Amino acid sequence: NRIRPGRKRVKVRYPKEKETEAGSKGQSILTQVLDKGRFLRLGESLSLNPGKTMELRCKGTNIGWAYPSYLDTFNDNRL
């Protein structure tokens, strides 16, 4: 009896799509702290009343921001 080499059947595996930063483009990375343990995801823009303070976080880290002083001198309404 002669042994013939047989063909091995190979299962085709398709790579799984991983969730990337581009896939989560619609979600905001900015979070507003409301109370202790309460958070709110922010959209593209945010409006605040004058004198109101807020705490912002980006990916869990506290962030700070400031605006240029020349915007105060010209009474710019963009703030």
TrEMBL record:
Its main location: secreted. InterPro entries: PDGFRL. It comes from the Eukaryota. GO terms for cellular component: extracellular region. It is found in: Secreted. Residues 1-13 have a biased composition (Basic residues). Keywords: Disulfide bond, Glycoprotein, Immunoglobulin domain, Repeat, Secreted, Signal. Residues 1-25 are annotated as: Disordered. This is Uncharacterized protein.
